[in-house]
Structures are given as structure tokens and as C-alpha cells.
Amino acid sequence: MFKRGCGLEFLLVLCGLELSWSCPRHCICYSAPSTISCQAHNFLSVPEGIPPHSERIFLQNNKIHQLLRGHFSPTTVTLWIYSNNITYIDPTTFQGFTLLEELDLGDNRYLRSLSPETFHGLNRLHALHLYRCGLSALPNNIFQGLRNLQYLYLQDNHLEYLQDDIFMDLHNLSHLFLHGNRLWSLHQNTFRGLRALDRLLLHHNQLQWVDRLAFHDLKRLTTLYLFNNSLTELSGECLAMLGALEYLRLNDNPWECDCKALSLWDWLKRFRGSTSSVGCVAPASLAGKDLKQLRKEDFPNCSGSESLHQSKTKSWAGTDKVSLKQEPQPGQPPQPRPHHPHLGEQFSSLPTPLPQPPPAINGVQAGTEDSPNLVTPQRSGRSRNCTRQQSRGGKGKGPNEVHTSKEMADKEFSSSDFTGKYGHTSPDSLTTRRKNKCTPRTTVRPPSGVQQATNMGNSQWLHLPLSSIVGLLVLLSARFIIQ
């Protein structure tokens, strides 16, 4: 007969809870996969006695100050240490962790600096969280060798500068979050090597200058957020290199809509994706207007050299005709989104769109002051009905409404019959019209009270000349008199 203590232990093991002598106090240890959960217990340091073969370790929401070599086992696959008080990470802490796939160090506001060797050797790492860590700079080669990394979270730090080729080894990176920093410029080789990047979030920075070749390697980028910066101009040639772009946010920048803006205006006319407004602040005559809605006549005294029709056309001709959604390269494995059950504490939803851009990014809902709505392109594949009168006003939705499907990754727009021209908005902001739309056809009806002929017999007399009718009447009258 089992003793009471042994029976309890046996029942807990059957339920998947493994009581191990090495399980730290105040922690819970599970098996299959081996997991240790020590979250929210005000630990000042990594607890001792962590089982040596633990695969998942959860230490979030404590007060841990430093990470040293020997705190964890190289068998670790998932390690969450976000929302602690970490100020120092020994460069050898993760040495030999060849199985580590997800490392969350986010929300350690006093970390501030990292050694270049901190993440070296993490060959299987696919998600690295360094958001809200007080980082003012990233050392050279800090991401060296992370060729399987897909998600890099660097938002809400104090970064002012990104050196050339810092992301060079991140060949499989698909999501790069840099919003909420202090970046003021993007150089030609800032993003070199990121050929698989799908989403780049740069909003809420202090960007004043973007090199015209800054995005030259981002051939698969679908989402670009540049809103709420200090941009006064942006070359259309710079954006023309983004052949797969679908979602673009440029609002809340002090755009100068003079001759320098002509190439951007020209590119926006051809872009078939979804964009926000591009509000002009200068010159005074155009202040408050949307650059996309301007006409060529609004750029007087501007030579054609600023236009994309001129010399720049040859260098990227045909970029406006590419498909909005590029297929993955043959033989490339799919890149699933990692599971982040804890991210709800910091974000209401991940950019899934951004815009979905997602319905919310970093807690900002679409349609709020920090997340103005986008202009959504019409879906292709629908024939234009020239006999159906277009409704005016519809449901009262404006031209900048966001169609927030559950995930921005659900966007599947083709471009076979999309004209690429934006609609015009009536003064009441409720009616959206497309340029060159078909004029509704109306059926021509007879005047009121006039009946149309119902058979050919009754209508034949209407087609005889008057002289023929008179002659026929004369013949009939003469024949009657003779009789």
C-alpha cells in the first residue's frame, strides 16, 4: 500500500508534473518537453538547481540583475527572461547553446549595452527579443552568424545610428522592428543582406534623410512604415526598388511638396499598394494638401529632371508592373510565425498587418492618432461593370479606411487589371471615385404617353412617304367615282 506522500507524487507525475529534487523552490517543473517555470517570484538572481536538461525556461517578471555562464544548460531551446532588471550579460552566457531557438531579453530597461560576442554560435536562433532595453548603440558583428534568425525586435530603445552591414548575416530575417528609437538617417548599406525581409517598421524615429539606395536589397519587402518621422523629402527612386511593396506609411512627416517631391509624386501615381496620406507643409500654397492628390500643374517651374519619367526611368523600368506578392524561392523552407503567448503583455497584436500593417502594432490601434488609416487598393480580378451605377457614399466609409483582415499576411492582391490610379474624394469625404471610370449607361425610352409599335403591320404606314399615300387616295377616289 502506498504512503500518502508517494501516492501524491505518483498522481502528479501522471498529470505531467514532475517532482524533481533539483527543481528550484517556488518553481514548477514539467516534463515532455522538460520545462521550468519561475516567473513572477521576485528572484534577484537566476535560481539555483535548474534541472540540467531543461528545454524551456521561463524567468520573466522577476528582478534578476545579471546573467552568467553556467546559469543555464546548452540543451535550452526556449529562454524567456523579459521584464527583469538585467544590467549585465556575460559574453559567454550562451556559449555552446546550439539548440536555442527563442531568446527573449526584452523589457530590461537598464541593460544599455551588449558585448559583440553575446549571441555568437546561436545557429538555430529564430527569434531574438531586445525591445525596451535602453540600448543606445549596437556593437559591430553582434548578429554575426545568426543565419536562421527570422524575427528581430529592437523597438523602443535609444538607437541613433545603425552602422553599415550590421544585418549582413541575417539572410532569413523576415521581420525587423526598429520603431520607437532615435534614428535620424538610413545609409546605402544599412539594410544590406536582408533579402528575405518582409516587414520593416521604422515609425516613431527622427529620420531626416534616407539614401536613395537604402532599400536596394529589400526585394521581398511588403510592409514599410516611415510615419511620424522628420522626413521632408524622399526619392521616388528609393521606393521604386521595393518591387514587392504592398503597404506604405508616410504620414506625419513635414513633407515639402516642391520640385524635390516630383519624383515621389510620380512614383505614388503608379504604386498599386496601400498608402497613407502624404501631407504637405510647404510651400504655403499647398500646405495641408495630400501630395498624392496634386496635379502636374501644382508643380510650376519644375523641370522634368525631377520626374521619374526622365533619366531615372531606365534604371528601374518596369518596377511598377511587378506582382504585389512574390512567391518564396524554390526550395526555401516556410517560415512559420513563432508562438509568443507572453507578448500580449507588451503588444495588443504583432504586425501580422502592420498594418495585418496589423489592426494593432505595439498597442496602437488602426485609425487612432498614432496609426492613421490607410488607402486600401481595390482587389483585382473583378470586371468593371459599366452598366451599374456606382453608389454615392456607400456605408459612409472614407477613402483612407483600413481593411483589417485578421492578419496582414492574409493580403493576396494580384495586379492583373489594377490601373494604379487613386480615387478622388468628394468634399464630404464620403464618396470615392476612380479616374477614368465608366459612365453609367441609361436606356433611351419614348416620351411619356407615346406607345411604341407592337407589330410590323401597324408600323409599315409610318415608313411610307406622304406623296405615296396621297397618290393612293386619289386612285381609290377615281375608282369609286367611275363605279
TrEMBL record:
UniProt KW keywords: Cell membrane, Cell projection, Glycoprotein, Leucine-rich repeat, Lipoprotein, Membrane, Receptor, Repeat, Signal
InterPro entries: Cys-rich_flank_reg_C, Leu-rich_rpt, Leu-rich_rpt_typical-subtyp, LRR_dom_sf, LRR_TM_domain-containing
Topology of the protein relative to the lipid bilayer: Lipid-anchor
SMART domains noted in UniProt: LRR_TYP, LRRCT
Record's compositionally biased regions (Polar residues): 302-316, 368-392
Compartment list: Cell membrane; Cell projection; Membrane raft; Membrane
LRRCT domain sequence ranges: 253-303
Gene3D superfamilies (alphabetical): Ribonuclease Inhibitor
Chain segments carrying region Disordered: 299-452
Organism domain of life: Eukaryota
Predominant place of localization: membrane
Compositional bias of kind Basic and acidic residues: 398-414
Keyword Disulfide bond: no
Pfam families linked to this entry: LRR_8
Signal peptide span: 1-22
Protein name as catalogued: LRRCT domain-containing protein
